[in-house]
Amino acid sequence: MSSNAITIPGVQINEKPWVDTLHEWVTTVDHKRLGVLYILYALLFLVIAGVEALIIRIQLMFPHNHFVSPQVFNRLFTMHGTTMVFFMGMPILFGFANYLVPLMIGARDMAFPRLNAFSFWLSALGGFLLYFSLVGANGLYGAGNAPDVGWWAYAPLTARAFSPGHSTDYWTLALLVSGFGSIGTAINIIATILCMRCPGMKLNRMPLLAWLNLVMAGMVLIAVSPLTAAQMMLLIDRYLGGHFFDTQAGGSAVLWMHFFWIFGHPEVYVLIIPCFAFMSEIIPVFSRKPIFGYPVMVAATVCIGFVSMSVWAHHMFTVGMNSYANSFFAITTMAVGVPTGIKIFNWLGTMWGGRIQFKTPMLFSIAFLFQFLIAGLTGVMLGSAAFASQLSLSYFVVAHFHYTLVGGVVFAVFAAIYYWYPKITGRMLNETLGKVHFWVFVIGFHLTFDLMHFPGLLGMPRRIYTYEPGRGWNTLNLLVSIGAFIQAIAILLFVANLIISYFKGAKAGNDPWDAWTLEWSTTSPPPAYNFASIPVVATRRPLWDLKHPEDPDSRYE
Amino acid sequence: MSAIANSAMANRFPEASVAWSLPYRGKVAMAGLIIAESAIFTIFVVAYLFYVGKSLSGPTPREVLETPIFYTICLLSSSLTIHFAAKSLARERVGAFVGLWLLTIALGGSFLYGTAQEWHRLIYEHGLTISTNLFGTTYYSLVGLHGFHVTAGLIMLLIVAIFALAGRVRVEQSRRVEVLAMYWHFVDAVWVVVFTVVYVLGR
After folding, report:
1. Domain A29-555 maps to which CATH number in 3.30.70.1140, 1.20.210.10, 3.40.50.2300, 3.30.9.10?
2. Nearest in space to A286 (alpha carbons), one of A352, A220, A358
3. How far is CA A57 from CA A61, A144, A477, in A?
4. What is the pLDDT of residue B77?
5. Best residue in A205, A260, A536 to probe B by mutation, most B CBs within 10 Å?
6. Could you tell me the pTM of the whole model?
7. Would the CB atoms of B130 and A241 count as touching at under 8 Å?
8. What is the ipTM of this complex?
9. A331 CA to chain B: closest CA distance, Å?
């Protein structure tokens, strides 16, 4: 970090050779550098999986299109889904947790810095393994290269007989390895939050970001482990001749579905809860008001954490469970909407009566609120078992979860990047370019994903590589694809902004947004040790107390 | 420069001393690991129970399994010895610690020997392997996963034992030793579940 180098007059310090810099980054155990590595790694995979999505959309632009073969199409949607969930979504959120949690709770690093580095490199190895399948998966059979079993890899598709070669092995190992990385990071986040807080930072004074990441990490422990166990079983089946999911020997394909979705549904909350955390930090600052209903927000998050563990089989309404199971999972799915609704209400309550500043992070946050609400509503629709039977495996479902993951997670991540980029790099992102990025992305997003609901309602199944003309899907699919390209343009603008602002952006200073949490009390970028002396806090908004000693929060809390 | 500005900023925080104590990070992390591991074992236990009696061919658990009572007593009593070993270390009675620690390793090792014997018998006398039938798949996975955890625990216990015999384990390390003891208790608790599922309910 050049910012905290001490210059001694008369002594010439030469620039470090780039090999040294590279060596420092590869061997680093600093939570901030690991956070940045996570974020860059995730952005790389965002671009890769985004290109895969574009190829999918080109193929579906017109009926009877022959841009890619059906086999390649299967590989594309498998790789797109797997990459976006495991190698874009989780790493970018872990990256922010890594970077921000120690700074926000006034700690000098995570509880276990070396475990932190180990977890990151495990995740990186997982992503590498997944894409190495393109080179290495031909194996002895010459069959297939990238995995083509779909991101949930239902049995018996993954059995040796139906998935020869090694592509499925690479998929399994990639998820197993990155799963160990996720569990390591989750343990680290929990230990950091519980054991590394600065004096005075009681649990009820922690920034909501720390609280929500604590819940997220707890969910990772309980949700990712079943996936790890299921992958072990799949490996036993594939390599040791086991019969867990071998229907020929009495094994059950439905058991895999249960195991996968016991992971799979909490996983979407693992992805969205850190985004709620970003909202809970960004909306108050740009509304110039403290968060509305802090204890309720914490309670609602913990509540989501628990309820979301018992909703998984709403992904399986069409496999033929009995009516009691269907009713149970429909009810729990509706129930999880209640704490989520409380959160949206609280963010609106924070904005209500505030002096709202429409800076780029706030624009993305407001879009998040609208879009996540709509995504939640289609979620409640699909949570009703009878309705889901009609629309399961249709493009309506695809539109629903992309609405949560793009309209929710990606918008929140953009908000977070615009908000914390000044802290991470010391320079502001360009505001004009940011607003252009926002509006282009909003237009592209809505063109794609609003319209995508309708082919689903008209009966278009997901995962088909082409379709017949004359079913009313043509125009809609064309518009959806055009929207995808508009989003791609927005992403290019964003990447350009990241690069240009890194070199030419205005200097940020310690606290460009006049915010209230501890990360803004140190320099931008923070020195390796974060805080020269460990802060002592008395309220939830320590920087407000510093800036307004005449009116500290302790009078009201 | 900025470091100095930074310290100036931080120094503006109230200096008032607050009574402040936080849990030990090692224990919290081990608790987290135990939660994650419990979830993994839960999935394997569910698979075992789901497939009880669903094998299309023999041998069945009733035909081949014998309840390993002696080795179970060995493993469960090792929980007691490691508990008292950790307590001895905390009270600076290093000699008692080393003795009890080695006894723990011996008890854990004998449990592993028991598992090995049982597997040898199943494989060579009854022809039951992991690919024979659903019972074989689920039995070897579940018991093997537990055996793997016992092995990992024994390796960690052995490392501590080597340091202890070299005279390097003192009362300062007692918190770390307690973290290891937590893991060992967890391995024993899992065995109670596995024993109940495999040898009591599953037959």
Report:
1. 1.20.210.10
2. A358
3. 6, 22, 8
4. 97
5. A536
6. 0.93
7. yes
8. 0.93
9. 24
